[in-house]
Design goal:
It is built from two helices and eight strands; from the N terminus they run βαββββαβββ. The chain is α/β, with parallel strands linked by helices. The chain has a single domain (4-53, 65-120), classed as 2,3-Dihydroxybiphenyl 1,2-Dioxygenase, domain 1. The strands form two sheets. A four-stranded mixed sheet has the order 1-4-3-2, covered by helices on one side. A four-stranded mixed sheet has the order 5-8-7-6, covered by helices on one side. The two termini are 22 Å apart.
Length: 121
């Protein structure tokens, strides 16, 4: 089971504004401040963190890396995707049925990290 995930950001303060607003829609809140970032917690599931790269190198997105955020229903997927875009995120795939009961929407954060909002069933 995954305990937490982190993604790299270039500007922690800008990322905090983005993720504070975005993750609040899923019940996420700041739970642990790090010297170089922040962990968010939820009622259920792993922690999610943003961080400046610990080694001091520039932040970059991994090719094929993505964090999926589980939503309670399709309306919440639609809302989260729209919210990400209003916060300055970039669209990577509008909400829709992807087959097999998977309904998802894709976007990138302010640093280009790819995320998916999804629900099953």
């Amino acid at each position: 089971m995954i305990g937490y995930t982190t993604i790299g950001v270039a500007d922690v303060e800008k990322a905090l504004a983005f993720y504070d607003a975005l993750l609040a829609d899923l019940g996420g809140k700041r739970v642990m401040e790090l010297s170089h970032g922040q962990l968010y917690g939820f009622a259920q599931g792993p922690l999610f963190g943003i961080t400046k790269p610990f080694n001091g190198d520039a932040q970059h997105c991994g090719n094929g890396n993505m964090i999926a955020l589980r939503c309670t229903n399709r309306d919440k997927v639609n809302e989260l995707h729209a919210r990400a875009l209003t916060l300055g995120g970039m669209d990577e795939g509008a909400p829709g049925d992807r087959g097999g009961g998977f309904y998802g929407a894709y976007f990138r954060d302010l640093d280009g990290n790819k995320l998916c909002a999804f629900t099953m069933g």
